[in-house]
Amino acid sequence: MMQGYVNESYEAVISIVVKNGTKVKPVNAVIDTGFTGFLSLSSAIIAELELPWSYRDRATLGDGSETLFDIYEASVIWDGQFREIEINSANTEPLLGMRMLRGYRLQVDTVEGGLVTIAALTDVI
């Protein structure tokens, strides 16, 4: 099980460690249930970690507009294990998407400072 918190803007936040070779960076990511990818990071963090570019993809944003994203590859520590994922380049705060949460239960105590828990469905059924 993983835990996070609800920030002062009532966003559910989880800390995640991103790794590329010997370069490691912890980031606080806002959980975005409207984002269908794994994780988005700014181009500055992607450059800092020297993440390898994989491909470019088209995505539809919440306002209905379409945009292109560069996709990179990285490892993250997720539920105590290394996991290879795709990283979307987006110049916003880090966002954790629904592909990352597949097979997990998300619970949020929606008060400032509230508890965010993410548990594997096999652990909660």
Automatic annotation (TrEMBL):
<dbReference type="InterPro" id="IPR022274">
    <property type="entry name" value="Peptidase_asp_AF0612"/>
</dbReference>
<keyword id="KW-0645">Protease</keyword>
<keyword id="KW-0378">Hydrolase</keyword>
<dbReference type="GO" id="GO:0006508">
    <property type="term" value="P:proteolysis"/>
</dbReference>
<protein>
    <submittedName>
        <fullName>Clan AA aspartic protease</fullName>
    </submittedName>
</protein>
<dbReference type="InterPro" id="IPR021109">
    <property type="entry name" value="Peptidase_aspartic_dom_sf"/>
</dbReference>
<dbReference type="GO" id="GO:0008233">
    <property type="term" value="F:peptidase activity"/>
</dbReference>
